[in-house]
Design goal:
The protein has 165 residues and is an alpha+beta fold. Helix content is 27%, strand content 29%. It has one domain: Gcn5-related N-acetyltransferase (GNAT) (Aminopeptidase). The two termini are 28 Å apart.
Length: 165
């Protein structure tokens, strides 16, 4: 099983390359490619709250997350990537669990995340981790959605999870 560590700014290029290799081709409606979702600034300012799972052959999974600067009780998972050959083995769950623990230790009481409405796997995964879906202004396939959340046409399902502190 890969070892988990805190992310570093120097991981940026590798994480973007991994995201490109691991992501399935995106429909145009899904918006930006992974490199636009992972600018270097996330690791310049949030490496301490982001995690990397790696073994002797390289990065196997990562989570980019941060603690809110505007709300002392919130933390947010921004981006998660897992090598497709290792999905279903608990890597993402392990990263989220470590993020939850570190956020709780820092006094955070809630973690937020988002997913695309058509990404049934991500929606099911977040629900399985104990996230609840935040009411939206629209519904897609029976799931509440926030229209234009990430810009015109970029609807998102929003999640929140209360942490036990």
């Amino acid at each position: 099983m890969p070892m988990m560590r805190r992310a570093r700014v120097s991981d940026h290029r590798t994480l973007v390359e991994c995201a490109h290799r691991w992501e399935a081709p995106r429909p145009p409606a899904w918006g930006r490619e992974p490199s636009f979702l992972l600018p270097r600034l996330f690791l310049q300012f949030f490496a301490g709250t982001s995690l990397v799972a790696e073994d002797s052959t390289g990065v196997k999974a990562f989570l980019v997350g941060f603690h809110s600067a505007d709300n002392e009780e919130d933390a947010c998972v921004h981006f998660v990537g897992v090598d497709p050959r290792l999905r279903g083995r608990g890597l993402a769950r392990g990263l989220y669990t470590a993020f939850f623990e570190r956020a709780a230790e820092a006094g955070r009481r809630e973690v937020r995340a988002v997913a695309r409405p058509g990404n049934a796997g991500a929606i099911a995964f977040h629900r399985a981790l104990g996230f609840s879906v935040v009411d939206g202004d629209h519904e897609v396939g029976g799931v509440p959605v926030h229209r234009d959340y990430d810009g015109p046409g970029q609807d998102r399902v929003c999640f929140r999870k209360r942490l036990v502190t």
